[in-house]
Amino acid sequence: MKPNNNIYKLIAGLKTTPSAKLDAKVNNAIDDALAQRKRIESAYMPSIRRIIMRSPITKFAVAAIIVAAVIVGIHYFGGGATKPCLAWDCVIRPIMDANTAEFDMIVGEEDKVPVIHDMIMGSKIHRTVEGMKEATIIDLASSQILSLDPDKKKAIYISLKDFPQIPNYMDQLRNVIKMLEATPGFTVEDLGDQVIDGRTLYGFKAKHPKLEVEIWADPATGLPVRLVQKEGQMKIICTNMRFDVPMDESLFDMNAPEGYKVEKQEMNIFDSTEADFIEGLKVQAEVLGDGIFPDDVSIEHFVKLAPTMKDKFDKLTVSEEEKTALGMKLQKGVMFIRFFKGDGKWIYAGKGVKLGDANTAIFWYRPAGSQTYHVIYGDLTIKDVAEADLPKQVEKQ
Amino acid sequence: MNFEDKLLIWKFNRGDCEAVRRIYEKYKQELVGLAVALLKDVSAAEDVVHDVFVSFLQLQRFNLTGSLKGYLATCVANAARNVIRTNTRRPQEPLDESQAVVSKTNSPVHEAIFGEQSRLLSQAIWELPYEQREVVLLHIHGGLKFAEIAGSQDVSVNTVLGRYRYGLEKLRSKFNGEVHYEAE
Fold first, then answer.
1. E strand or H helix at A194
2. Can you state the percent helix, strand and coil of chain A, rounding each to 5?
3. Contact at 8 Å (CB) between B28 and B67?
């Protein structure tokens, strides 16, 4: 080693351990700054909260975006899933400044479900699902979904009743992010480096009382490329995320193509009840399961079966009106799971159970605020059951 | 700038003062080491680092193109220069060589060698004129480019290069005889 290198090494490594007094002084200064910031926030935050809660847009922000995703998929008897990268786009500044976004979305575990590809521009989302020819455009500003079936030359408009108008999806995400960050209990944990899909990414985990998100960024660019969101019993993975990508505006055209037969539907996606869920279960067993309840009722499973379910509906020998009615029942049932309002987790044990089996519990959960559980049996009856008397599977889980 | 620093700055710009705590913990030893090397006074050095972080907390947000460490090193150097210029502080607490400026070491053997060398180097650095000392430390310790140093000192790059060259030559001449050689 040359002496000069030694000088470099020694100077570069100069370190002095600060005294405890300095540590205390700096930490006190930081504490003071935090306290001052809280005082300032408390002075004006109430009005901000009032504005947020009064606004139907922000009040339903998270739900609304997710709903739009599910709705579309449901229209195809499957697809949809969930809102992509809500709060988590927040973690990296560039996302906050993005005008367009593009990513692949997986509901559940990778390699097991169809990949949903989303392109976002302004208030509109252009969505396609792997293995399905249909394309869907969701316009959050007009609370409308346009589903295009190129094979049948059919365009279906779905109006989302009571759906808040969202002028710009990315702006909406920013609002959601701010709202989440302002919620007590919101924390961010540094996950460090990890090799994912052959790439070294830098991640962190943001936790909110109602959801948990991991976001992974490319250390070279600082841009997020992957996001994993866990909300309740649902998991969503966004990959290949790109921002400010040039896009063809015609992909977001809400006018039905020439020659397409146009149909219109309306639905409220927020008001699904237990009764809707039971109706949906009945449709799944009767129409899609040959009298047997499905293996699972999770959103992941629904997405996984999307293409198959669509085929089965197409083959039904009933009128189009009846198909639409059945489809609506299915949608409402899925909404109950998607926006589950009970306390704790729901349990499904209906795999392989025959419709009409009065002795086998297929689903149970605790309604919000209730001391007892609602247990649904194979004959679709409901019983109020104390926790101690729940089916044994509860203990396993 | 590494990703963690980007993230810390992003959090700070969004009002997260806890990010400053992390920044302090991450760089405090290097910054105090730099300040001690500049001022030859532990107490004054700690005051400078404290003042830098207090000022940092008062920022609403800031955009950084270079490294965070370099930015903080510049802040420390500016504050130390002010201390020198205004002459408001005199070395009141002579440096305790056992605690003051230490070199990062890898093993007991290295520590024995570099501990002594560090003491010699510290002495040599303190004998440099302040301007040369500052340039040498900011470039090697702070990782700043000469143009960045010139900007922060409001002098030409050539002036900075000259100070650096003279400073390094003096260090080399004072340090060479004592330095430990290894086989190349």
1. strand A187-196
2. 35, 30, 35
3. no
Nearest-Cα distance to chain B for A297, in Å, is 39
Phi-psi group of A108: left, alpha or beta (phi > 0 → left; psi -120 to 50 → alpha; rest → beta): left
Q: Which of residues 4-23 of B touch A (CB under 8 A)?
A: 4, 6-7, 10-11, 13-15, 17-18, 20-21
B103 to chain A, any CB pair closer than 8 A? The answer is yes
Is B102 close to A14, i.e. CB distance below 8 A? Answer: yes
Q: Do A21 and B46 touch (CB under 8 A)?
A: yes
Q: What residues form DSSP beta bridges with A261?
A: A154
Please tell me if residue A187 touches chain B, with a CB cutoff of 8 Å.
Answer: no
Residues of A in contact with B117 (CB under 8 A): 6, 10
Q: What is the rounded distance in angstroms from the CA atom of residue B146 to the CA atom of residue A134?
A: 59
Q: What are phi and psi of A157, to 5 degrees?
A: -95, 130
* 3-state SS class at A363: strand
Do you know the residue count of chain B? Answer: 184
Contact criterion met (CB below 8 Å) for A351 and A296: yes
A112: number of Cβ within 10 Å: 12
Question: Bridge partners of A215?
Answer: A204, A227
Q: For A36, phi and psi rounded to 5 degrees? A: -65, -40
- Kindly identify which residue of chain B lies nearest to residue A222, measuring between CA atoms: B3
- B54: Cα separation from own chain's centroid: 18
> How does DSSP assign A115-130, residue by residue?
PEEEEEETTEEEEEET
Q: How far apart are CA A280 and CA A267, in angstroms?
A: 15
* pLDDT tens over chain B, length 184 residues: 566 777 778 777 767 778 889 899 999 999 999 998 898 888 889 999 999 998 888 876 677 777 888 989 999 998 998 888 775 444 444 444 444 444 443 444 444 444 667 777 778 888 889 899 999 999 998 889 999 899 888 889 999 999 999 998 988 887 765 444 333 2
ipTM score assigned to the predicted complex: 0.80
- Cα gap A103→A226, rounded to integer Å: 9
* Phi and psi based region of residue A259 (left: phi greater than 0; alpha: psi -120 to 50; beta: remaining): left
φ, ψ for residue A241 (rounded to 5)? -75, 135
A vs B, Cβ pairs < 8 A, gives 127
Q: Residue A57 is which amino acid?
A: I
Q: What is the DSSP string of B160-176?
A: HHHHHHHHHHHHHHHHG
What is the value of pTM for the model shown? 0.48
Q: Which two tokens stand for residue A127?
A: 């969505």
